[in-house]
## 1
Amino acid sequence: MSSEPGTLDWNLATDSSSFLIINNIMAGLTKLNNKLELENNLAEDWYFVEGENQIIFKIKKGVLWSDNVELKSYHFIDSWERLLNPNTAADYAYFLFDIKNAKEYNSGKIKNFRKVGVRAIDDYTIEINLKTKKSYFPSLMSFMSTFPIRKDLIDIYGESWIKIKNLVTLGPFEMIEKKNNSYMIFKDKSGKKIKIIINENSTSSLAMFENGQLDILDGGGIPLLEIPYLQSKGIINTNNQFRNNYIGFNVNKKPFDDPEIRRAFMLAINKEIFESILQNTVSATNSWIPKGMIGNNKYINLYDPKKAKEIINGKSLKDTKIKFLFPESGNNRLIAEVLQSMWKENLNINVDIQGLEWKVYLSTLDSDRPNMFRAGWAADYPDPHNFMNLFTCKSGNNETGWCDKAYDELIRKSSNEINEKKRVKYYDKAQEILIYKENVIIPLYESNQIFLKSDRLKKFEYSKMGIINFSDLNLRN
C-alpha cells in the first residue's frame, strides 16, 4: 500500500484502502463473488416479503466474533443506528436512506431510532422496511459501512476501539500486528499470514518486489516510467475496474459558484493526454458512469480551449486565488501538474496545486474544502446508482456542496425503475445536468488495476471493485 488506510472504523471509512482491510477482517450479511454475483455471507437466507416493501434476513447461527461472543441480530441494528446517528457524522449514512424514516433520523427530524424501519425480530432474524422496493438493496449489505459492530466495546473504549489491542472482528482474518506507516500483519484460523507493507516510494517498492520481498505490487507502487519496460517483459497484470477519476468543484466558493467558469475549466482540459502520460493504463472518459454498467455514455470530447478562453475573458478573475487539492500518492502530483499547465496555457490562470497525505486530504475535504479537488470513485456495489447517488443533496460523500432537486428526483426515479431502458433514460438526463449543464464535476479517466505478481503465488485477480480477498492468496506447492 502507498498509504495508511483512512480508518478501520467501518461505519466511518470512506476509502478503498480501508475497505481492502475491513473486507478481510469483517463481513456483511451478503458478499459479492469475483463474478459480481451476490451471495449469502453472514446471512443464511434473505427474501423480499411478497406484496410488501420489506426484506427479511436470517442470520447464521454459531458465528463467533474473535472474542468468542456469538453474532446476534442486534449487532447489525446497533451498527445501523450508529451509521445513521447525526452525531456520528458518517459520510455513508445515505446508504441506508432507502429504509423507512432513516433519512429523517439522520437529519434529526426524528429523534427515536425505534421509528426507523429496522428491527430484530429475534436473535437471528432482521426485518427491514423500505420506502419502496429496491432490487439493489441486498447488495448494500455487502459494503463495509453496514457491517455489524460491538457497541458494548465501543462504549468501553471510545475512539480507541479500533486499536489492535481492543479490536474485535469476525472476518476470515484477524489483524495481529500493526506499525503505523510501516506494515500490518493478518492471520486466519489455519495460521496463514498476510503482510501488507506501507511504502509511498514507488521506486523503493518496485525494488522490494524485484528482490523477492513482495509478492504483490499494485499500480500505486509501480513507477510510471518503468511501465513500458515491465509491459515489454509481459509481467504486468491488468484487471478492468469500475473506477472513475474526476475533478470536483466547490460550488459554494468563488470563482466556481459560477457554472460558466466551471465549464471553462472543463473545456480547457485535453483528457486524452492522460492516456499517453499514464502509459495507456487509463481510458479518457466524458461519462461519469463507467464502462460495463448501464448508463455509460460515449459523449464527444469536449476539449475546446478557444471557447474556454472566450468564457474566461468575459469574467473578472484578476487576482483570484484558486487552490487545487489532491492526495499525495502515486502519480497524482504529475497529473496535478499537467492540469495546472493546461489551465495556465489555455486560460492564462495560475492554479495553486497542493498535495496532502491521504488521511489529511480526506479530513481537509470535510473541514476546509478548497476551490477544486481531484478524487476517484470505485464501485461499492456493481450498479450505476452507486455512482449517480454520490452527488445527491444528502450524500455524505458529495464534496462539491452542490444540490439540485431535479437531479435528485431523476436518481430517485431510476432507483425505483426495473425497466433497464427507462433507467438509462433517467441516467442520461441526470448526467447531462451534472456534467454539461451545471458542470459540477469533470470526469477525467477510468482506471484499470495494474499489478505485479510473484511466481510464488497461485493465480489471483482483483475484483472489479479493486479488492483482494486474502483467502484467495495461496502459494504454489
## 2
Amino acid sequence: MPPIISVSNLSKTYGSGFKALDNINLEIRRGEIFALLGPNGAGKTTLISIICGIANLSRGSVTVGGYDINKDYRGARSLIGLVPQELHTDAFESVWATVSFSRGLFGKPKNPAHIEKVLKDLSLWDKKDAKIVTLSGGMKRRVMIAKALSHEPQILFLDEPTAGVDVELRKGMWEVMRTLQASGVTIILTTHYIEEAEEMADRIGVINKGEIVLVEDKAGLMQKLGKKQLKLHLQSKIDAIPAALAPYNLELSDQGRQLIYNYDTQGERTGITSLLGDLRDAGIRFNDLDTSQSSLEDIFVSLVRAP
C-alpha cells in the first residue's frame, strides 16, 4: 500500500539564510499514529506547516494522498485536519457554531449529524451552546480537534495536542486518538511528552537541527537502542571495583553499596552469568538485584545529544 504522505528531499531555507529543514525524506503509512519528536527549534512545526500547505518549501516535494501539495493544493489540503499548537478560535462564538463554520470553509455541505458525532466523541456535546471564552484550556483544545475533524479528513496533524492539559484530560485525549485511528484516520503528532509517544505511537521519528535522525517502529526502536541495566545491592560497602571485573565496565554507586552493569539487549549473551561468577570469585556478595530497561526518554535524550 502506498504511503498516505510522502516527503522527498525537502529543504526549507529562510531569507535570512537560516536552514530550518535539510533534505528531509519521510513516509507516513495510512492508518498509523506517527510521533515526531525533537527539541525546541528542531523543525517539527516547520515540517508540519509545509506538509499542510501553510509554509512554502525551498526544495523537494510533498504528496498527500497522491496529491502534490504545490500542484494540487486543494486536493491535498482537503484530506488534512490540523490542530495547531496555539489556540486560535473566536472566543465569543458557540462551540457548535465554530465547528460548523470550519466545515463550511472546506466547501462541505452542512451535516449536523457529523458535527454532533464529533462533539460527542470529544465529550463536548454538553458544551455545544457554550461560548468558547467560558471553556477551560483542555476543553478549548478539544474544540480545536473538533474543528480539524469537521470536514472528515483522512489525516489529522496534532501539534503538541496535550500542551497545558492536565494528566486526566491528557489520557482522555489519548483515548480519542485511538478511536480516531480505529475509524481509519492517520494521525501525526508532535509532542514534548515522551510518555505520550511511548503510549500512543506505532512509529517514532526523531528530528534534530532540521534533519531526521531516525524513523523506527516503536518496538524496534526500544529493542535496538534500549539498554538494560542490572543493579546489584551489595552486602558490604566497597571502595573500588576490583581490577578483575574491569571487562564488565561496572559503575559503583550509592557510596559503594551498589554496582551497576549495563548490557545490550541485542547481544547473543548478556554476560550476567559470568559476571555473577566473577563477583563470587572476587568475594563480593549482594543482597538483592533488579533490572530496568531504557525508557523512550533515555533513548531520545541520547539521540539529540549525539554529535
